[in-house]
Design a protein that fits this description.
Chain lengths: 232, 232
DNA sequence: TTCTTATTTCACTATCTAGCGAGTTAATGA
DNA sequence: TCATTAACTCGCTAGATAGTGAAATAAGAA
């Protein structure tokens, strides 16, 4: 948890300076929140990491909760819109006839690519969102707020890909998908130890390679059964 | 978050009294930790809920971290041993020829039954373990410490059920399973809102009905593909 | 009873916490 | 150039925090 000393350059306009400082604060907060959670981090911890007085965080973000929200919102908007776009494209490309696996690839691979290519900041955000997702009360509300549209878009595609299935099955299937995804993003290191180093927590590519196919088969299994229960 | 006033009965031996107080403290801590996490709860919060002076918690558990560990360990031991026993029984009952779905049913249904039948305390523990599972650093270590044996027992069965598959695929499959399970245990209420009330976070029975089948199909999908890649 | 031990509260400390308001420095724009 | 505004630091406060050690209380044993 050592301080990252970026030389705070001198010749910048106020607007540039403000933007840069804001980003630095968000990055530092993101790093720390992703590791210790909202309550496990103090404003002083964050300020120290930026190399700035702690009251500056109040100046920029009013209070701790608003800082946390800003950290989460910054990248949530990006991933949400990005996936929405890809789902729309996929829908068009298949002429309104999506498959389960195709829709899941669009949804999951798009997101995983972001964490693969996005650098350290995106990986920290990923771990943070995993914690938020499993936090009752305010955590779930944050997820609702930022991701309901794109998730419902995915679910719309899945319903069309499985027209005879019960709606509950689709929702529970999505629940399994997102649970698995969130644990992936958490990068806890558990799978590394469990597998004796064969698998690695941070290996999003390995997950990308398997996840959509795995989950698609799951959907077909629980939806097919429901279909046969009805007809039989 | 109102205080639960159990009348602290008078005529008990010291040993009984100690056991009872210990349980009350663990229950209160479990309740609060499951909702606000380790850092979101103070010893005073817990003490208030039990109706006891906050320094009594130091007397019983030395410090906050040890209290947290005790909360987690209490039920982790129960669920771990219980599942281990059921997996052993299943292994014997199938004459050493397990199926993926059978092993998953033994592993998952046994656990879900505990949360269905176990009352409020078990549900709180479940939510707590979901948070621990997605917490890097110490969270993953706690999971390793308590669950490695039973998880490796399950994985052993899965390997035998899928003898030609790559080991990594089994481990990643397990990773998906546990991610989905943990989100279920978190009971965040997200699925309720998302589905417009059609599904409910606390409906472990609905999950039990679908999960093993869903995941088994997933395993077969990623392992089958790997097999055909090799042979083809 | 009385001595001993376990349980529980109490008073206190050292440290940390978020945040306010005034002061300082530096950029901006008239 | 100079007044204004923005960016940032400093000193401070009021309250919370975990934990210590001594005292009070109750239970158990003699």
């Amino acid at each position: 948890m050592s301080t990252v000393e970026k030389p705070r350059s001198k010749r910048l306009s106020k607007a540039e300076r403000r933007a840069e400082t804001t980003e630095q604060i968000l990055d530092a907060a993101e790093y720390l929140f992703s590791r210790h959670g909202l309550y496990g981090v103090t404003l002083k911890d964050v300020a120290k990491r930026v190399g700035v007085h702690h009251t500056l965080l109040n100046y920029y973000f009013d209070d701790k909760q608003k800082l946390f929200d800003a950290v989460f919102a910054r990248r949530a908007a990006v991933t949400s819109e990005r996936r929405m776009k890809v789902l729309n494209d996929y829908d068009k490309a298949t002429g309104g006839k999506p498959t389960v696996e195709g829709a899941l690839h669009a949804f999951l691979d798009t997101d995983l690519d972001l964490y693969i290519e996005g650098g350290e900041g995106w990986k920290n955000y990923a771990a943070l969102s995993a914690q938020v997702a499993n936090t009752p009360e305010w955590g779930a509300k944050m997820m609702d707020q930022h991701f309901d549209p794109v998730v419902l878009r995915l679910i719309g595609l899945l319903k069309r890909a499985l027209p005879d299935s019960a709606e509950e099955d689709i929702f529970w299937g999505y629940h399994f998908v997102t649970g698995a995804l969130m644990l992936t993003l958490a990068r806890t290191g558990r799978i590394d130890k469990l597998s004796g180093g064969l698998c690695q927590s941070g290996d999003y590519a390995a997950v990308k390679q398997r996840m959509a196919r795995f989950m698609a088969a799951g959907f077909h299994a629980i939806c097919a059964e429901r279909r046969s229960e009805r007809s039989g």
